[in-house]
Design brief:
5 strands, Dna Ligase, domain 1
């Protein structure tokens, strides 16, 4: 059973993610979490990330060719589109709900569809 305690370490991780407009790598979360909880250890962050995924407090974001990142769940439980900068390789959260594509494509009996993801590519404001 997952440990659902609301510890200061978990709060530091949540604050780190709330302070960012994009999903963060574990190392980035660790660096930001230290500003809220200076004595937090890197292993503690990694352990808490795994627990928070199991508790549905975080979402793991992974795209081909990209490192694993983490973000807070969408406020209403839905999904939102992501933007990947082709220059700096950062992933950003776009506002709004991801439009459904599943009902607009021809289904193949060879596959079991489990979800969808909308990814927009381009250049972020810093790389323009």
């Amino acid at each position: 059973m997952p440990d659902s305690r609301n510890t200061k370490q978990k709060q530091a991780i949540i604050k780190a993610l709330e302070s960012s407009p994009r999903p963060l790598r574990a190392e980035e979360i660790y660096e930001l979490a230290k500003t809220h909880c200076p004595r937090i250890g890197q292993r503690t962050v990694f352990r808490n990330l795994a627990e928070m995924i199991k508790e549905f407090l975080l979402v793991r974001v992974q795209f081909p060719g990209q490192p694993v990142r983490y973000e807070l769940p969408h406020a209403d439980g839905g999904h939102h589109p992501h933007f990947i900068c082709r220059n700096c390789n950062q992933v950003f959260i776009l506002p709004g709900e991801t439009p459904s594509v599943m009902d607009k494509i021809e289904k193949s009996p060879d596959y079991i569809y489990e979800g969808e993801e909308v990814i927009i590519f381009g250049r972020c404001v810093k790389c323009q």
